[in-house]
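Chapter review: from sequence to fold.
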Amino acid sequence: MLVAELNGGRIDAFSAERGPTYNCPKCRGEVVLKKGRKIVHHFAHKPPTDCTWATGETRAHMEAKILVSNALKVRGLRAEVEFIVNTLPGDRRADVMAWSPKGLQIAFELQHTSIGLDEIERRASSYASAGIAQIWIPFLKSNVWDEGVPRHGGWFIERYSPRTFERWVHGFNGKNGMWMYDPKDKAFWLGRLAGHQSYVEETTWYSEGGEENYGGGFWKYSKRFKELTLEGPYGAEDLLIKVSSRRAFSTSGYNWPAARIANLVPA
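The token string follows.
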């Protein structure tokens, strides 16, 4: 975790110094400050602990939160990592919370690992109910660079198998597409999904009565695969924030709330 409590207040690992007693914001148990030249400054629970506040946290995820927060601060905005939103279910932290000059809250959710559909829908609805604009940014899977080819200055993957939450994020953003993060180069890409068609070869066979039958010979849309087009890369400092609104919408598999959406726009 990047933030701990000190004397009832919040303090981030970069500002903290060794010596004081720091506590976990969730369980209030003691945490230890970890600082070094080759690690991301962070706090870790003193063992033993059963607190799940930092479960599954990765270096890449912590680095991404710091990158986004710092880019926002450079633009003169207030930004805090791991900001607690009391209205959220379960894990109540926004990866990064920013405030516009007019005071609008904007939650950045950087999704390094898969998140369940029920959870992302609950969190999105909670943000919407609280009047908080939101943007969900999936991490790019490393295999996109092996499975794709350059196209129009960007990258194209003909057979991409999107994770369920990526399908949700793309649908949530509508025509804006979805911003994705490459942890290797610390860069952002604008991703757009489109239907992928595969050809069903024509076949023939004979029935028991000797009658010849035909099948195939047509193109069909794949349920598993999509085409993914990536535009970029962009540095965090190259992107501005634009907030818009969307209506609620549901399909047989997905639910999107009426909400304020934060979209990134190249400067």
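Two observations follow directly from the output. DSSP finds four helices and 20 strands in the chain. The chain has a mean pLDDT of 92.
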